Structure formats: structure tokens, C-alpha cells
Amino acid sequence: MGCARMRIVIAACVAVMSFVCSIATAAAQSRATCDRTCLTGLLDRYVDALVARAPSRLPLTATVKFTENGQRLELGDGLWRTVTGKGGYRLDMVDVDAGQAVLMGTIREADTPTIFVLRLGVIQQTIAEIETLVIRNKDAAESLDRIGAPRRAWYTAVPESERHSRDDLARIANMYFSGIELNDGKGVYPLRESCARLENGAVTAGDPAAIPGAPPTPPNRTRTSCLQQFQSGVFFYVTRIRDRRFVAIDRERGIAFAFAFFDNGSGEARNGTLRDGRKVSSGPSIPWTWQIAEFFKIEKGLIGPVESVLHQVPYGMGSGWSTWEDAMSSRPRW
After folding, report:
1. Closest Cα to residue 259, out of 182, 317, 325, 197?
2. Cα first-last separation, the chain
3. Which residues contact 13 (CB under 8 A, 6 or more apart)?
4. What's the DSSP call for residue 218?
């Protein structure tokens, strides 16, 4: 009787495991039905529908979720009411395995150049998640429009034998965030010597010549590389980098894309010591947060180039896609 009962339990466990595996396989297959061309095409369709102010043109799930700058809205609200045209800059990527597509570029809102970030979560060629940032910084948007085309590196495939795993791409990119949050100049910073960072249309690290069309380094500022900045300890005033969501990873091109928040706690956090021993005060005089979207190109374990857009938001603000605990945590998620 004991053996018979044991056989029944084993059979039930096998059935449950088979059922779970079949669900996981089906989920993976359902996302994989939208390949690179399909995902890129959905980005195109979204922008076209947005400019036409016609959300009904999009293939949507019944439970689609839409946010703009961290606030959940009805699709058709927000920028959908004020958009007036396409912009002149667009950097995009897709993650076929996860069913994610990302666009970072410019748009016209009330005929004013504006930065626009779009993430689509796709299931079986249908849009289930729409996350957007609308960064109303005219000068930054105009600078991106003048640059016109993203760097070639973003669309260049990494040799197959040199491609990192998804986990490694996210892990290496996360070292960039941790290197800023814990910046004493003494950490491990996996940054390429040639790394140039384009931030809101301006080169804030590296050689502007690496980005055709980018504005030159201002005469009152010393040009430094990405690595030199990290090794100086200059980011000491950033008190926390949280809600680190690596929402899209492209192994073929060696890219990780993340949303995050940079908290500037102010107060005593403004006072720090650089690696060379100098004591300085830096950072904002009141608490506030940067909401940021950032691309990382990673080859042979090193980061570079880097490209980001960001804007100031209320201190401690969330993304609308995380629990409160995750939103307050520096733990990366992918």
C-alpha cells in the first residue's frame, strides 16, 4: 500500500512539473514569435500612432498598462494630447528573448523639440506594457537633433565568439551604477579608455570627436574620460542609485539598457573627499532625484560607449513599475 501511494505521489509530481515546464515553454515561445524586425516595427507603429494621436491603431492586450514619467495614465492621455510631430534623433534596440523594444530619441510637443523614451513589452506581437519618459528639455533635444544619427557602435554586432551572456551584460552594466553610488575612486570600474558618454545631447565624458555632430567641450571645463571621472571620486554626492531595472538586453550587439533613479540626498552628502585628498562640496543644495534612461555598449568585459537622457523629478519618486521596496532598493533587476 505504501509503495502504491508513493507511485501516485511521484506521478503527480511529474505531472505538475511537466505542466509548469509547458507553461514556461509556451511563454517563451509566445514572446519569441515577435522577432527583431517585428519588435522594431512595433516601435515604428507606436511613434506613427502617437504623432497621429490615434492609439486605436496599436495592437494592444486587453490589460495594457501605460505610464508617462512614472504616472499611470489612460492610453491617449499625456503626450498623446500635445504631440505635434516626429523628431530628428532615434536610438533603438530590441530584446527578442524578453519581448522588449526600446527607443530613445526626440519628438515634437507643442512644436517644441522634446526628448522621448519608449519601452514596449510585447506578447505574441501584441503590446502589453508601455513605459514612456517625456523629458521637456528643449536645448538637449535640439542638440540630439543636430547630432542626427547615433554612433555606429550601437548597431554593430559583437563577434559571436565574444558575446557575453545576458547575466554578464547586466552585471557589468550594473557595476557602472554601483561605481557611482559607492564612488571613492578606489573601486573596480570596467570602463573602456575610449568610452565617451553622451548625456542629454552633451558629451559629459570622453572625446566629443567620437560623436559626430556633438557640441565641443566647453572652454571652462577640463575634458576627462569616463574612467578618470570614476577614479577621481567626483560622484560622491550621489547618495543612492535605486530601482535599477535592466529591462532590455541584446547579446548580439552587446547592449544593456536600464531605467534608474539617482538620488541626491544633499545636506552632509554634499561634502566629500576626492581620491587625491581634496575636500570639496558638490551636488544640489536640496534633495532631488534624477530619473534616467541609459544605454551601455559592452565588449570584452568593458563599457563604452554610454548614452543617457535624464530629468529632475521629486526626491524618492518611483517608476510606476516596481513595488515600493524595489523602488527604494539599489539591487539590480533583470
Report:
1. 317
2. 48
3. none
4. P
The Cα 264–Cα 246 span in angstroms is 21
Torsional class of 253: left (φ above 0), alpha (ψ -120 to 50), beta (otherwise): alpha
Cell 565588449: give the residue.
299
Residues of the chain above pLDDT 70, percent: 90
Q: Which alpha helices (H) appear in the chain, and where do they start and end? A: 2-32, 36-51, 79-82, 138-147, 166-181, 226-232, 324-327
pLDDT digits (tens, 9 = 90+) for 183-221: 999 999 999 999 999 999 999 999 999 999 998 877 777
Measured CA to CA in angstroms, residue 278 lies from 26, 104, 269, 282 at distances of 58, 38, 15, 12
d(CA 200, CA 309): 5
Q: What pLDDT, in 10s, does the model give residues 127-137?
A: 999 999 999 99
Q: Residue written as cell 492586450?
A: 61
Reduced to 3 states, what is the DSSP secondary structure of residue 122?
A: strand
Is the Cβ–Cβ distance between 48 and 59 less than 8 Å? Answer: no
CA-based Rg of the chain, rounded to a whole angstrom?
Answer: 22
- What own/partner pairs with CB < 8 Å and gap ≥ 24 does 197-200 have? 197/226, 197/305, 197/306, 197/307, 197/308, 198/147, 198/305, 198/306, 198/307, 198/308, 199/307, 199/308, 199/309, 199/310, 200/115, 200/135, 200/137, 200/140, 200/143, 200/308, 200/309, 200/310
Q: Which three cell numbers stand for residue 2?
A: 505504501
Ordered domains of the chain (ranges, CATH): 36-147 (3.10.450.50), 157-327 (3.10.450.50)
> Is the separation of the CB atoms in 260 and 292 below 8 Å?
yes
Parallel, antiparallel or unpaired: strands 288-299 and 302-313: antiparallel
